[in-house]
Specification:
The protein is mainly alpha-helical. Helices cover 73% and strands 0% of the residues.
């Protein structure tokens, strides 16, 4: 038996499908006129992956920011695993599965479309690190949090609703982990 709250959340996700299709189609029509942007999207879409979490945490540790490195690793890993488990709950078809005519620019990812795991990870990293970085050092994190969800739509593997949900989930995870880590250390 499915929990009533889960049934309610699922009912909210499914009706946005047609709107998601229209928004994603409009985005791809607008942007696909630029082959250089296609290549940029393909080559940067994984900035919301565990590879980026590991690389960024390693760089922070090398720069002497060990606490930030550890917290980023925790937040990124939590975001990835929670995002992946959320996909099992919703089991939403990906755009290229729903429309075989849709051009996919990357290899087909595994798992459900909702929520976007890459958007979840990107938002989680950005949420933590924009709060911990000085003014001029915040923009790369913010750029990743905005860019990665757009690339996931662009390469044909997610709908806008998937990436929006992933961003909200990532933000929530980062804030929760940050509170937990701060409370534990105090």
């Amino acid at each position: 038996m499915t929990h009533p709250l889960l049934r309610r959340v699922r009912s909210l996700v499914n009706p946005i499908g047609p709107l998601d299709v229209r928004l994603a189609t409009a985005w791809r029509r607008l942007i696909r006129r630029h082959p250089a942007l296609d290549a940029l999207a393909v080559n940067t879409t994984d900035l919301g992956s565990m590879y980026t979490v590991a690389g960024a945490a390693g760089l922070l540790a090398a720069l002497g920011r060990r606490r930030d490195a550890a917290d980023l690793a925790i937040v990124g890993t939590a975001a990835w695993f929670i995002g992946q488990e959320s996909k099992r709950v919703f089991n939403r078809r990906r755009p290229f599965e729903a429309d075989p005519a849709l051009e996919r620019l990357i290899k087909p990812p595994t798992g459900s479309s909702f929520p976007s795991g890459h958007a979840t990870v990107a938002a989680a990293m950005a949420t933590l690190m924009t709060r911990r970085s000085a003014g001029g050092r915040r923009w790369p994190w913010t750029a990743i949090a905005v860019w990665v969800p757009l690339t996931r739509i662009h390469v044909g593997v997610h709908y806008p609703g998937d990436t929006a949900a992933g961003a909200v989930l990532g933000w929530s995870i980062a804030r929760s982990v940050e509170r937990l880590v701060t409370t534990t250390r105090d």
